[in-house]
Specification:
Layout: H1 5-39, H2 45-77, H3 86-92, H4 95-151
Helix pairs in contact: 1-2, 1-4, 3-4
Amino acid sequence: MLTTRREYFLHLLEGFKRELVLQERLLEIARKKQEILLKNDIEALVPLLEEEGELVFQTCAVERRLGKIWEEMKRQFFPKEQEMSLSRVFELADADLQGEFLLLREELSRVVRELQELNRQNTLLIEDVLNYIDVVFSLLLREVERQEQKNSPCYGPPRGERSRGGVRGILIDGVV
């Protein structure tokens, strides 16, 4: 059980260090995902996505723990504090810990910004892959229809069957 203000700050510091490690690993995964997407090796994404999901879960748990520690710390030592920003935590830290908190904040901010940018780029790459797949399926379906019409002795679809009409994309417009 944490009892002193310093123990709380040390516990917060360790939590932020743990979060930084998790965010750095998420950044590594985002880089690998980008390489895989550029190589169009979609199957290789599966293990990365599983690991990424686990890391996101762990990160959320760390952030919840940090929030609880901060709330308890506020109740005990800073009851008049309303704001729970990282900047405020660093301002309230013991002087000898402030430098470490500031370095952590800078590094966490850098990693999170880079991660957000890579995730944005990866989202665009995934959308491109899905659009490409949709176009390929649409072209294949049109070709199949053309071959069916070419080989059909009838003027229309066989009795009891409906005409397929226009081909719709599988992934974007719905299922054919």
